[in-house]
Automatic annotation (TrEMBL), chain A:
Matches recorded under Gene3D superfamilies: 3.30.450.40, Electron Transport, Fmn-binding Protein, Chain A
SMART domains: GAF
Residue ranges of every copy of the GAF domain listed in the record: 161-322
Coiled-coil positions: none
Protein's name according to its UniProt entry: GAF domain-containing protein
Pfam family, one: GAF_2
From TrEMBL, chain B:
Organism: Solimonas terrae
Protein name (Swiss-Prot/TrEMBL): Pyridoxamine 5'-phosphate oxidase putative domain-containing protein
InterPro entries per record: Split_barrel_FMN-bd (IPR012349)
UniProt superkingdom: Bacteria
């Protein structure tokens, strides 16, 4: 049986670096170490290009190279005959390698020395297992395919809609993949950022925290629609939150919710959640152990996130269809009859940030939704709402396509559950929900109206 | 490769004898490279010649190419510091390895086990990677002509001087 690159893929993730042999135009061989080799597909790999050196000169002259790769779990070694095709200096492959190289540089004391200039893409023309190697048995491994099967079944069996699907996916990571620190984020494309809707394994859930597109492993995974994986701690891709000094009005308006990541993280993996060709969110996992996530984990989580993306899309569509035929009709008691100290709800119009008394709750579309619900409740005494009326409300500025309304309702509902003892949102039927208000409410709007 | 043999400095010779992670490359008549990990290395007293110890199966094509082309490049790396040196020159297979070759290979292996154990590499793995199956080592006589700094960084690839002959 002829070998393809899948056979030797673990060697590219090895703690033992590859070496590369080339020959110059005048016939002099050259051998050196490779900082990082990246699997592209069963017939292609990419090598990190950092310096203009003899290897680069030889590759450009003859386009041929021989790579020696060793699996650091078993010792199995392969020689890969390569043909240079091209260099990519931007895009998903480049970003994947840049992230991997940052981890390797940090681990080997080469931070500041290694800088990826390009991803040199090669066709693998042949693979030969090195004779005379007595490979040691690989230590017992997790079986990502079995874990994927169990997780996939759990998602398929989940009948509880958008909210329950998020929980099912995060629970499956813990139960079946032995992954104990994870987060799910959805993309707000209009704002160019991702917001966290669920997590596991942290002291604070971090629900509502935001990551800019392109920031760290999560932001790059979403921006480039590609998995980003790092095997060693690197400050280049860490989510560091340094409290900024603010004074006066700004200090009262701090709206940042810290990302809940581990203080010390070695391994990180972010995979995009894609549906209909569009990135909808990111599944992020991390671990304090080095080299925790391999290519097999990457495969499994990409497949899982693909299924999750479809399921979330279907859950969203189901809510929309139900909302089309059932309009809200029930009314609540008149708020004037409620007892207790009034809850002051402030809204800053410039970003729809909402504060409950002095505590920041949420901003953006989720903030605008809560404001609308309370406004209706105070004006009409109505506490039953439909997805459809939210979607049709121009003040919420929901995008026409892929508005992720369900994700924003989940975000709002979860933030209220964490931050308020008197406001609550409860699903009542498909496409419908109820706002519970436990105290009188006073609304205060601050700032100029936003231009349409 | 018409250059004269270079004389290694004492520090270079000590570094090379390590033990180090060692790979050698040669090429055939069509300039296709061959590449193998080596089992060990001995620097001659005059520091102008090395004896490279290779596994006969792992280095099968390399040995063939050296026999045909006579050209050879060898890279020596210290995994713990990443210090790396590449030597280029001429080589030929020796009729027989030195009498103490197997003892040297074993010392080389033992040193690697001791060095890499704290970094999580088991003796079994080090044996598999460094030694492989137990065929006796074969020897290549190697005369380095040029030396290159190969430690990762922008200086990698720069030619460096040995001692004057």
């Amino acid at each position: 049986m002829s070998l393809d690159l899948d056979t030797a893929r673990d060697c590219l993730d090895s703690a033992i670096p590859c070496t590369i042999a080339t020959v110059s135009g005048d016939g002099i061989p050259n051998v050196t170490y490779v900082s990082h080799a990246e699997y592209v597909d069963a017939e292609h790999l990419a090598l990190s290009f950092q310096f203009f050196n003899k290897t680069r000169e030889n590759v450009l002259a003859r386009r041929a190279a021989l790579l020696y790769a060793t699996d650091s779990e078993s010792g199995a070694s392969y020689r890969l005959e390569l043909e240079y095709l091209r260099t990519e200096s931007e895009g998903p492959l480049f970003e994947r390698m840049k992230a991997r190289l940052a981890g390797i540089a940090s681990h080997t004391g080469m931070a500041g020395v290694f800088r990826l200039r390009g991803a040199d893409v090669y066709r693998v023309r042949g693979i030969e297992a090195v004779a005379g190697i007595s490979a040691a048995p690989r230590p017992p491994q997790r079986k990502p395919l079995a874990a994927l099967r169990a997780a996939s079944c759990a998602i398929a069996a989940c009948g509880g809609g958008f909210d329950a699907l998020l929980d099912a996916a995060l629970d499956a990571l813990q139960r079946h993949f032995d992954i104990h620190h994870a987060a799910l984020l959805m993309l707000d494309r209009a704002q160019g950022r991702l917001y966290l809707v669920g997590s596991r394994g942290y002291a604070r859930s971090g629900i509502g925290s935001e990551i800019e597109l392109g920031d760290g492993v999560i932001g790059v995974a979403a921006a480039q629609n590609t998995p980003i994986r790092i095997a060693y701690a690197t400050s280049d891709y860490r989510y560091v939150h340094v409290a900024t000094q603010a004074d006066g009005a700004d200090a009262q308006r701090r709206t940042e919710i810290p990302f809940p990541g581990l203080a010390h993280v070695e391994s990180q993996l972010a995979v995009p959640i894609v549906c209909g060709g569009e990135v909808r969110g990111v599944l992020y996992v991390e671990c304090p152990q080095q080299r925790r996530f391999g290519y097999d984990d990457e495969d499994a989580l990409i497949t899982l996130s693909t299924q999750l993306g479809l399921a979330l899309d279907q859950a969203q569509a189901a809510q929309d269809e139900a909302g089309d035929v059932e309009l809200a009709t029930e009314t609540a008691e008149c708020p004037a009859g409620s007892d207790g100290t009034p809850l002051q709800v402030r809204r800053y119009r410039e970003d729809d940030s909402i504060f409950l008394d002095d505590d920041y709750l949420i901003k953006g579309v989720a903030g605008a939704i809560l404001w609308k619900l309370l406004d209706v409740w105070l004006a009409e005494g109505r506490n039953e709402f439909s997805n459809r009326e939210l979607r049709l409300d121009p003040s919420l500025r929901l995008p026409d396509i892929a508005d992720n309304l369900e994700a924003r309702l989940v975000l709002l509902s979860r933030r209220l559950a964490e931050r308020s003892d008197c406001l609550r949102i409860e699903k009542t039927a498909r496409g419908r929900f109820r706002l519970h208000v436990g105290r009188p409410v006073r609304l205060a709007e601050i700032g100029k109206p936003v231009a349409a | 490769m018409g250059e004269a043999a270079v004389t290694l400095s004492a520090a270079q010779a000590a570094f090379i004898e390590g033990p180090r992670s060692i790979y050698a490359t040669s090429c055939d008549a069509r300039f296709r490279p061959s590449l193998a990990r080596l089992l060990g290395c001995i620097v001659a007293d005059d520091r102008r010649q090395l004896i490279l110890l290779a596994h006969p199966l792992q280095a099968d094509r390399l040995l063939h190419d050296v026999e045909q082309s006579g050209v050879l490049a060898v890279v020596f790396n210290a995994p713990e510091t990443h210090q790396t040196l590449q030597l280029k020159g001429t080589g030929r297979r020796l009729a027989a390895p030195p009498a103490d070759a197997e003892a040297l290979v074993q010392r080389h292996l033992d040193a690697f086990v001791a060095a890499l154990g704290p970094r999580g590499f088991t003796p079994e793995l080090v044996h598999a990677v460094i030694r492989g199956s137990p065929e006796p080592a074969v020897a290549i006589g190697f005369r380095p002509q040029t030396l290159f700094e190969q430690t990762p960084g922008p200086q990698a690839g720069q030619r460096i001087a040995g001692n004057a002959p």
